[in-house]
Amino acid sequence: MPYNVGKIFTTRNNMTHFHILDLDTMGQGVAKADGQITFIAKTLPNEVVAAEVYRNKKNIHFAHMTEVLTPAPERQEAPCPHYAQCGGCDYQHVDYPTELAFKQKSLRLHLRHFPNVDITVHAAPQRWHYRNRIQLHYHADKKVMGLMDVNYEPLPVQNCQLIQADVREKMLELYQDDAWLELLQDEPKRGHLELYCRDEEVQVSVNEPYANGGFTQVFPHMNHYLTTWLTHQVNQYVADNAVIYDLFGGNGNLSLPLSRPTVVVDQYGEHTPQNNEHQSFVSQNLYAKDAIQRLQAAIPEELSQPTCLIIDPPRSGLKNLKDFVATFKPKAVIFIACEPTSFVRDMATCLEHYTLMKVDLFDLFPATQHYETVGVLVLNELV
Q1: Range of the domain at 343
Q2: Residue 6 — pLDDT band, cuts 50, 70, 90?
């Protein structure tokens, strides 16, 4: 073979040839040689690629691919012209069944200590133009706005393949003659704009945490599918009049279809017209040191004993999940995570008294490495 496969060495222009052995849990290609490990995004097993190392940490390296020298059979041309430089997508260079297989393998690796737990994969009905929201980072002095590129700088993405047509139309309006700069009155030189579809209109906010009234999923169809599935799980384990706590619930999106008394807790959530009469809202930071005590004090007596906890935290998870479960003693816990590492860490702390009944993978983020992991925990005595 004409390439120095299996050897990590610097060649002209700091380019190195790598033989990709496998993918890691984040979808990055893994190359190993001479005690060195290199991670390279947007590569595939059995490929030989040229790449430029941009970060070193002892025997671990990270590199940007510059050329595919020996492509894998699965490789295909990405439909997005920004794909090579943009950090927003990870799997446009393979077809959708291959992407799903990689994601399932990723979750299985995270669950390697639970070999008897089956993973059910829920595929998306479409792979492109599904997002109803996009966050664009800006650098005002450089007059540049877009998604972060591989060097963590804003990259203009006028032809992004993931956003809905109406969101893209609004984005193009902002790009026209740098109109977005007019929105930055009294704003910092670096920050972000968020375009989001709400009530069939596309709105724009600047440097807001959750501009659309609390966190919601970005894929409306899959969001509806997930809430329907969630309703079925609740019906299976929870009585009709039982109390439910929807923690990190945003605007109550997940618990909206549930016809049960529900307490929605979120720091950024808000009550909106589409909420039902069964939902009560508590604005609270669930990461505060005394979060549990403050939550107990804020909830009326008639809602103080939840039968089910629905928990959908940020990527960092909920390290003290065990404390919430020990305090409220629910019959069932439905844990939804966008980061499988924190999912496994947090869920495992509850297994003394609860059984992990099932794990489901919902592909709410096609063409990216991300997915939602949902686990159902039930009290041992009820299994």
Answers
A1: 119-125+219-382
A2: very low
